[in-house]
Amino acid sequence: MSDDMEKRLDRLEWENNVLKERYDHMNDRLGEMSVRMDSQHRELLAAIGSLKDDRARAEGAAQAELRLAQRDRDRLKVVSVVIAIFGVLAALGWLGSKDAAAHPFPPGGRDHEERNLADP
Questions:
Q1: Is residue 97 a contact partner of residue 89, using CB atoms and an 8 Å limit?
Q2: Is residue 96 within 8 Å of 87, Cβ to Cβ?
Q3: Domain region containing 99
Q4: Which residue from 3, 50, 71, 91 has the least number of CB within 10 angstroms?
Q5: Phi-psi label, residue 95: left if phi above 0, alpha if psi -120 to 50, beta otherwise
C-alpha cells in the first residue's frame, strides 16, 4: 500500500472512532433525558392528581356551604311563617287581649272544673 492510502485509511479510522464516541455520547444523553422525562412525567401526573383532589375538596366544601345556607333559609322561612301567624291572630284580636277567645277547657280538663265547683 502506498503512503497516501495508509493516511486515508488512518484518517477514516479516526473519523469512525470519533463518530462512535459521539454516537455513544448521544445515546448516553438520550438515556439520561429519558429518565428525566419519566420522572418529570410522574411528578406532573402527581401534581394533576393533587389539583383534582383539591378541586374535589373545594367543590365538596362549597356544596356543604350551600346546604347549610339552604337549611338556614328554610329555618328563617319557618320562623317568619310562625311570626306571621301570630301577627294575624293578634291583629284579629284572638291573641294578646282580654277579649281573646278563651280555651274552652282549663288546663286540668272538664273533670277538674267540676271538682272545683263541687268542693265549696
A1: no
A2: no
A3: 3-118
A4: 3
A5: beta
DSSP secondary structure string, 56-105? HHHHHHHHHHHHHHHHHHHHHHHHHHHHHHHHHHHHTTSSSSTTSPPPSS
pLDDT of residue 116: 55
User: Cell numbers of 42, please?
Assistant: 410522574
pLDDT category of residue 115 using cuts at 50, 70 and 90: low
Grid coordinates representing 62?
362549597
Q: What percentage of the chain has pLDDT greater than the value 70?
A: 78
Quote the cell numbers at residue 87.
Answer: 301577627
Q: What is the pLDDT of residues 81-110, one digit of tens each?
A: 999 999 888 888 777 666 555 555 555 555
